[in-house]
Structures are given as C-alpha cells and as structure tokens.
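Treating backbone geometry as a discrete language has practical consequences that deserve illustration. The sequence in question and its structure tokens are set out directly beneath this paragraph.
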Amino acid sequence: MITKIAKDFYWEMSHRLPFHKGPCKNIHGHSYKIRVEISGEPDINGIVIDYYDLKLVMLPLIEQLDHSFVVDENDSLMINFLKENDMKYFILNKTTTAENLAEYIFIEIKKQLRNKFNNISHLTVRLFETDDVYAEVDGQINN
C-alpha cells in the first residue's frame, strides 16, 4: 500500500524578473511556503519518512534561501550589486520564477531522498509565492 505524507516549510526571500513587463521586474519579496509531499511504502512501524528526517533534508535548503535574494546567473547587474554590498544571495541557473524555484528544490530534495530512503517512490513539491499562487513539480524518486 502506498501512503502519502506532507509537511509545510516557510521562509522569506526576494527576487526580480528582469524580463517581466509588469511590476515583477522590480526587486520584490514573498513569504514563501512550500508543501513537500512524499509517497511510499510505510516501514514496519507504519512510517513512510519520519517528519524529523524530512526536516533535516529541508533545513539546509531553507537556510540557504531564507532572507536571501535569489538571482538568475545571467543577471550580472544584480549579482554585482549584491556582492559589492555584502548581501545574502543565491544564484539560480535559470530565471527566478516560482516554477524554476520549485524545480530546483524538487531536484535537491530528490537527491537526498534517493540516497537515504529506498521505500519512497514519489515526490511532490508545491511552492507558494502567495496564499493563492503556487507552482508544483511532481515526479518519481527512482528515475
């Protein structure tokens, strides 16, 4: 039997979308929420993954992103500004859309889960930029 568990995590982060024709081209921030859903076979104790173990997987990612400016690797104007002013930032190899951030986080979680838990089969990452706007990445763990 496959069982699904989920846990939410929160952090503050800013970014900009230089290509955007509207206000998102400007520096702005969000109170991000991410819901991580994991499906798999429960172990002998009835646990798919201990919530504490999931927290340990997520903590380095959250610490990396919390109160940082996430910046596209091609946005040299922002990267130079952030470096010169000793600001916390994280460089993404794509534009900093919710979709791309969700994909990045999905890949990072998948790496951790695949190496440590052989009973987990499926992962869903739902990244909320606001209460009613989110991007979701969903896929198998074992491919």
About this structure: The helical segments are 51-65, 76-84, 98-116. The chain has one domain: 3-140. Strands lie at 3-15, 28-40, 68-72, 89-92, 120-130, 133-140.
